[in-house]
Amino acid sequence: MATAPRPRTTTRDPEELAHRLTAWLGTRLPGAKAVGVTVPASNGLSSETLLFDIEHPEPPLRSCALRLAADPSAYTVFPVYDMVRQYRTMEVVGRFSDLPVPKAQWLEEGPGPLGAPFFVMERVQGRVPPDVMPYTYEGNWLHAASDTEREHLEAATVGLLAHLHDQVPMREAAFLELPGEGDALRRHVTAQRAYYDWVVDGLARSPLIEQAFDRLEQLWPADPGPAVLNWGDARIGNVIYDGFDPVAVLDWEMAALAPREVDLGWTVYLHRFFQDLTVAFGQRGLPDFLRRDRVEARYARLTGHTPRDMDFFTLYAALRHAIVMLRIAHRQAFFGEVDLPADPDTLILHHGSLRAMVQGSYWD
For residue 310, is the peptide bond before it cis, meaning its omega torsion is within 30 degrees of 0? Predict the structure, then answer.
């Protein structure tokens, strides 16, 4: 794992992007130049990010980050990249909550300037828990921190979810309501089924993913509770920290209206994904960090809402992550980086833990 190359995510030429970015910037801020344009090493596997500075006597922002919809020629992770929706979500969260959301300065809805829609926001300085190698591995700042420092970061991060869910009025987030019938949870799961069908269109279906969908129906909450604005990709890898305090909450492309536990399940499981992977490779990891019982208890103290049906919601998180991983594996095959195996379930890196969740033995 330590030497595995990072999967390819784009066919775009960084130098051409930089040239086109400078041309576009001049239309928004005459005389301005984009300088120091770079693609961060930690660029995600879905949308792309460019970092640059603005050279101008009076720029509205000096240091910028540009969020660009995924390259349509690069076997995208998601079928749709709605940058207007992301931009609007960040604006609403920034206006109605105390979450530190970067200021979004410009939105470009058309594909003309850079080949796809994008928006530009302020670049916030700080550090992010790494995904590669995962922060649960030895040799990074979070792993090297003290238990007290990690507990501080954990508390502050759970606080982000508590404040987001409690502070943003539903009338302001109504545009995030998913289509379909039924309550918010039913619509959310229906959307995931549609996403899975898109991922496997013309390809082998995953028996394990389909078993997980069936298991969800068996565990379906009697009362899912009211919907709140969910961050969607609620994990510490999408937060910039100053020391151990959050200073920027990033990546809102999966935001939606759903029960609180959808975010909580994702936060808990995405850490477990990295922890399980670390243990499988012979390291201890961080077994006492972001533990399910601690996250649930802390969230309950902050909000007065005791998380419910978390076996369902952690299974749902693992299932959603499996669909994304299946799509990423198919993209690797598209670029010739891997061969597709006979058993599609083996493309899901956490197929063992997902199967244990389906069987009801994972949390034993």
Answer: no
Whether 233 is catalytic is yes
**Torsional sign, CA 317, 320, 323, 327:** negative
Structure tokens at 258: 């759903």
Coil vs helix vs strand at 134: strand
Cβ(188)–Cβ(265) below 8 Å = no
Q: What pLDDT digit, counting tens, does each position of 251-287 carry?
A: 999 999 999 999 999 999 999 999 999 999 999 999 9
pLDDT band at 3 (very low <50, low <70, confident <90, very high): very low
User: Would the CA dihedral through 333, 339, 344, 345 be positive or negative?
Assistant: negative
Structure tokens at 137: 């591995």
pLDDT, one tens digit per residue, over 280-318 is 999 999 999 999 999 999 999 999 999 999 999 999 999
Burial label, 144 (beta-carbon count in 10 A; 0-12, 13-18, 19+): exposed
Beta bridge partners of 55: 33
Q: What would the two tokens of residue 175 be?
A: 């545009």
Say which of 214, 233, 311, 345 is annotated catalytic.
233
- C-beta atoms surrounding 162 within 10 Å: 20
126 dihedral zone (left: phi>0; alpha: psi -120 to 50; beta): left
pTM (predicted TM-score): 0.94
Helix H or strand E segment including 278: helix 260-280
Please tell me the predicted confidence (pLDDT) of residue 2. 40
